[in-house]
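Exercise 7. Predict the joint structure of the components listed below.
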Amino acid sequence: MSSITLLGAGNLATHLAISLHQAGHTITQVFSKTKKSAQLLSNRLNCPYTTDLKSILPSDIAIIAVNDDAIKEVEKHIFFPKIHTSGSTSIDCLNGKNTGVLYPIQSFSKNKTVDLSETPICIEANNDMFLQQIETLARSLSTYVLPLESQQRGHLHLSAVMACNFSTLMYVLAEEICSKHAIPFDLLHPLIEETAKKVVDMNPSTALTGPAKRGDDSVMKQHAHLLESDQEKKQIYQLLSRSIAKRNL
Amino acid sequence: MSSITLLGAGNLATHLAISLHQAGHTITQVFSKTKKSAQLLSNRLNCPYTTDLKSILPSDIAIIAVNDDAIKEVEKHIFFPKIHTSGSTSIDCLNGKNTGVLYPIQSFSKNKTVDLSETPICIEANNDMFLQQIETLARSLSTYVLPLESQQRGHLHLSAVMACNFSTLMYVLAEEICSKHAIPFDLLHPLIEETAKKVVDMNPSTALTGPAKRGDDSVMKQHAHLLESDQEKKQIYQLLSRSIAKRNL
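Solution:
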């Protein structure tokens, strides 16, 4: 079991800290520049907190789970082994003898608990010994741990943005249309759940269905007509339909 | 229980027929212009089939579950109560004393069974008596049945295309990126499942996360750079990121 200094108190930091705590690790201290967040999380973990980077307590490992653009500023103050948790930030962003990355591939929200044991975690380190240490830590949280270099992790993070944020935008657009026409959005809930299941059970391109896939021009024209008063949605509809049709050749 | 003539033998027709059969209705006959499909489905239902529209056997109700553009051609040959199952086709497409619609909001694939009992079904009819009859039929299949007029159904179908087909395209794009960079796509499976769960548990706009939502320009620039050699994905990335950012104002 390790002693861990946690930097950050946002969604990812909170989920990670609680899972680490439950796995038997000791959180030595929580840092957040926002006092309220630091207090809240340290209360849950029964450990001290600080809002001052100059008062960071040393431990076996520091986990830097702050916003990407704050990593450099934070890491400068840490003089013991440290890892960050960012999908899109290179390991080179960290300086020191033992540096690494632990990137859980999941979307974390404030009021929704996520089971980290089923969350894949990508790891990286600047030396083999430290990679082993990070792997042990990651395996105490999840059954699916994979070493991945920074460059590949960047592409994985981009894929995750498409698979998660952009698909959520599609649901937002659908919800806006339903709401405008007084249609209960929950009519789409089983379709949304089934779509995700299908993509996981089959592969995504096999799961593609619908007018663009079938080349059904009359339905696509009808949809474009329905979107006449919403040029943004129309543009998205047409670009994505062309993209589906292209993959059908 | 009703006797039903089924027109069509595709994915939707097959799922519907089997659920109707299991619910205790009698499938009088299956029609498909493709002999193989007609034979296959009629074997599963233990009922006769035809490929000839002039040999349609009458029953309590005809369910027209053919491609949208074939509905008009098929319905001309039916001289008893009839309904179609299309999301994007008006009820006016059908002629006769008793006409209606039964639209299950789900995506059906060949080799994947879907539980219709949890699938919302929208219904419509050209008269109240027939609406009641369709409602009884729909309620024998699903617990969630909602009367919806053709115009609203058109908007619902458009929403379903966005929520299902377009989100699947996002998974396809993610899979293409992973595949190109030798990253196992199953790393994204838990994220995909969690995203769908979040949209259903919260509402979609609350579930939005990621660089465009946070206004993280440096990550978005980095992603655009990674997509430099794939102009189509770059265009989609930028259009959808702008759309997310717009909703964040």
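Discussion. Chain B has a mean pLDDT of 95.
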